[in-house]
């Protein structure tokens, strides 16, 4: 960064684009919201269907009914709690219709949502609440005692609000009361001065290498990415998306809540993913698209359910991203279930998705981009943003050369909250630097198809050579006795870093040996990329969105790998 350029200026540069896409036609989230719930063609159409299988809850709301619920919640937050534009409302909740209503009510009144994973540690919850300066917190009623403990150390946290299945526990808002009013009477949907640049979300990253960072997303970010996703997949009023991912994360929020509302479609929200009900629900609800992560594809492959009883003719495909997908997984899934994978890529810092495989690809072309290279392609940039591969000096790299994936445009966040150090590192020369290594290849039409080869911080540097762990993971997963595999580096006297692999064998089959898997790897990889040590286990550290935690696994295995630091692994070890 030039000394004459401030951090704020660099963030502003990265949020600009020459993309000629049409501008958003609304002045605020409230304007956008009214355009849907007051639409006479939508008032009686379903918007939100919710399932909680464990508690046998199932309910559906039309656009008008959803608008009434949002009005009731907005009135409560504004009149009873006293929250105003710019205040922050944290949530420690789970996938629930009440959570969705709270999100929309907050955005309609200019309030920022700070979603917190209910499964986070108490220390991380306390940190996020304090760092975000949340004025209020909504939590599930059974957690109220634990959550009130946070207030003692957090002077900014003025209100802790318990909710249950009916809404606010004190009776100020019951979803069973007045829901059938049509059209909704909306009175407190954002002050007159609100606009699209208001903060909508502060999403905290996982923080595997330090304290979590709060990503600031504006209303414009959310609606712009929803527009890009809807445009790319040609979603419209007849589309019905299903959400099985947690809505405290941008994938669940943007792809399967905001995008259906944006395109005037509908959403089927599940409390959690269950392979036992997944296909049946797609059938019963006439779902046209579902957003998943690669881990869920593996779970569905393992379940191997017979789809003959189901009619899935409305299902157009699976949006898949938010984690590394192996080539073998993609090909096996499409061959088994005959459903196209709409592979894509994005980050919280870019609102959600920045690119997808084009939907105009023939099955042969899609298989080519999923399997012809070392990694499956993450696709072509969607509108409202641009992507490039840059070197450490910020120079554009040519086709096929690996560097850092960088993004600019109106889907790029407004920086990290109270983290100038992180902003200075991530926003440089008019780009947001993702921290992911990748490259691109052009098709016959000249379109750049991007690939991600790994996190820069996760690359294994053996003897000065960068090695992507994803490539080795893919080879190990091809072995028929391997359920899960993840490659990690360990310190080594001669090479700096050497390669180890953690493997979970498939249940019910004979167990592979270390020698079996090493021979398997040497069929597909040069010796330098083969794991020298293979450790076996039964569990995998996942994030709540289904991403395997490679750095956490590396830390967990560190003590077991100490004994191998001095050993010299050479070609003679073949």
TrEMBL record:
<keyword id="KW-0436">Ligase</keyword>
<comment type="similarity">
    <text>Belongs to the ATP-dependent AMP-binding enzyme family.</text>
</comment>
<dbReference type="GO" id="GO:0006631">
    <property type="term" value="P:fatty acid metabolic process"/>
</dbReference>
<dbReference type="InterPro" id="IPR042099">
    <property type="entry name" value="ANL_N_sf"/>
</dbReference>
<feature type="domain" description="AMP-binding enzyme C-terminal">
    <location>
        <begin position="471"/>
        <end position="547"/>
    </location>
</feature>
<dbReference type="GO" id="GO:0008756">
    <property type="term" value="F:o-succinylbenzoate-CoA ligase activity"/>
</dbReference>
<dbReference type="InterPro" id="IPR045851">
    <property type="entry name" value="AMP-bd_C_sf"/>
</dbReference>
<dbReference type="InterPro" id="IPR020845">
    <property type="entry name" value="AMP-binding_CS"/>
</dbReference>
<dbReference type="Pfam" id="PF00501">
    <property type="entry name" value="AMP-binding"/>
</dbReference>
<protein>
    <submittedName>
        <fullName>Putative 2-succinylbenzoate--CoA ligase</fullName>
        <ecNumber>6.2.1.26</ecNumber>
    </submittedName>
</protein>
<dbReference type="InterPro" id="IPR025110">
    <property type="entry name" value="AMP-bd_C"/>
</dbReference>
<dbReference type="GO" id="GO:0031956">
    <property type="term" value="F:medium-chain fatty acid-CoA ligase activity"/>
</dbReference>
<dbReference type="Pfam" id="PF13193">
    <property type="entry name" value="AMP-binding_C"/>
</dbReference>
<dbReference type="InterPro" id="IPR000873">
    <property type="entry name" value="AMP-dep_synth/lig_dom"/>
</dbReference>
<feature type="domain" description="AMP-dependent synthetase/ligase">
    <location>
        <begin position="46"/>
        <end position="417"/>
    </location>
</feature>
